[in-house]
Amino acid sequence: MNCLRAFSVATLCCALLRQAFAAGPQEAAAEPPPPASEAPQAAAQPTVAADPDAPTVSARLEKNTAMIGDVVKLTVTAVSARRIPVNLPANLDLSPFEIIDRQETEALLDEDKFRREFVFQIAAFDTGELTVPALSLTYLAQKGAVRSVSTEPLPLTIKSMLANEPEAALKANAAPVPVWQEVHWPFYVVGGLVAALLGGLLGSYWWSRWRRREKVVPVVPPRPAHEVALERLERLGAGLSTHEDLRPFYFELSEVLREYFGARYGFESLELTTEELMEELRRHSDIPLVLSQVEGWLSSCDLVKFARVDASESEAQAALETGIQFVTSTQPPPPAVSDSPTTDHPEASRG
After folding, report:
1. If residue 100 lies in a helix (H) or strand (E), which one and from where to where?
2. Distances in Å between the alpha carbon of 324 and those of 164, 213, 294, 328?
3. Which residues are paired to 155 by β-bridges?
4. Are 257 and 323 in contact (CB under 8 A)?
5. What is the pLDDT of residues 288-305, one digit of tens each?
6. What is the DSSP string of 57-89?
7. Which 8-state DSSP code applies to residue 111?
8. pTM for the complete prediction?
9. Is 176 left (phi over 0), alpha (psi -120 to 50) or beta?
10. Percentage helix, strand, coil, to 5, in the chain?
11. What DSSP designation does 240 have?
12. pLDDT, tens digit, for every residue of 199-243?
């Protein structure tokens, strides 16, 4: 009886052990992984600190859809500190796109910020959903280290020119064009050249005759010097009352008489002094004037002009009248008019 009980206990223990070994792997698989904080330090990924000198770069397309062969503008912008230069390689591979043109612009945003833009004109000759690859820009960090920063790739859809055609096909052959046809333009060209030649010959003939004609140049006799002088003196006297300062009046009055004497007796008088002018007048013995009176009149005008001696309006009027008297007394006599009667005297016809 005791042996049977011991055998039963041993059998039960074996069954329990077998069940425990079968359940062990399943519980191990179902057990959740330990949290990250409990993971061993050797398994943690190393962290890289952000570069404070790295510029901010971006890229943008002017449109997201284009036709095959269309030129699309791609703008790459880099904003960095003023002391950090940013460059983009000269030779870029933007496959499947081709670079048509490239331009660069720079602008100072503020005292410390600097913006540089790279503008590309690109085109694609393949259709489909294409991608502009990322562009890598280099910059000079602290201690002379050369580093790079990249833009994000940009999607661009390129459509075919035949996308809107329901049944794209080649056009039918054009009708044949006649090769032989009448050509008239050579006759028109030859006729035009002949007409132009004849017209040129006739024009040259008439032009030579016109140039050889006798040219009659009308000679306009100059106005007499005394008429010009009296007209200017009359105009000067009409505005005498409007002069508050009489010095300009005396300047013009003296100039009129000096110019008249020079034109009347044939010498340059405007640049002469009063003494030189009187010497020229003394050379002409036919002057019907008392030269001492002329010299005194000129000297009184010089006192008002240059010495700023005050003169009244009545004195100015008297000086004007004296100048008019000088002109009228020295003007040349009028030409003699011959008395030739056009008709016979009635009494003479009677005799």
Report:
1. strand 97-108
2. 101, 48, 12, 6
3. 131
4. yes
5. 777 888 889 999 998 888
6. EEEEES-SEEETT--EEEEEEEEEETTS-EE--
7. S
8. 0.37
9. beta
10. 40, 20, 40
11. G
12. 999 999 899 888 887 767 677 788 888 889 889 989 988 888 787
